[in-house]
Design a protein that fits this description.
By secondary structure, this protein is of the alpha+beta class. The chain has a single domain (3-106), classed as Trna Endonuclease, Chain: A, domain 1. The chain has two helices and five strands. A five-stranded mixed β-sheet has the order 1-2-3-4-5, sandwiched between helices. The chain is globular.
């Protein structure tokens, strides 16, 4: 992962902690793909994709979370829930977009 991506994920973790989320995992990897951050707020497990950019040359960061990427994240999320016996929990998929250090948290992104 590039340095900008690492910094963005660190910034996203700090943002989530400040907003009362508990971080369960970061960079959770499987053969299907990876989820940047798995967090919990109240009784909801939140799978967070972090996208960081310095400019709009390639569009807004959240626009790079394609349907294919969403599908992979959902497969990894399902594996995480089965592995940790959390299938009965409410879940949500969020995107944290960081553009020039400005954070935009998109809840229920997909």
């Amino acid at each position: 992962m590039n340095n900008l991506g690492v910094l963005g994920e660190e910034q996203a973790v700090k943002y989530l902690l400040k907003n009362k989320y508990k971080i369960l995992e970061t960079n959770f990897k499987t053969m299907f793909g990876e989820i940047d951050i798995i967090a919990k707020i109240k009784n909801v497990i939140v799978f967070v994709e972090v996208k960081t950019r310095n400019n709009l040359k390639f569009g807004f960061p959240c626009e790079s979370v394609t349907q294919n990427k969403q599908h992979k994240i959902k497969m990894v999320a399902e594996y995480f829930l089965i592995k940790n016996k959390l299938l009965k929990n409410e879940i949500r998929f969020d995107v944290i977009e960081i553009l020039n250090s400005e954070i935009k948290h998109i809840t229920n992104a997909f």
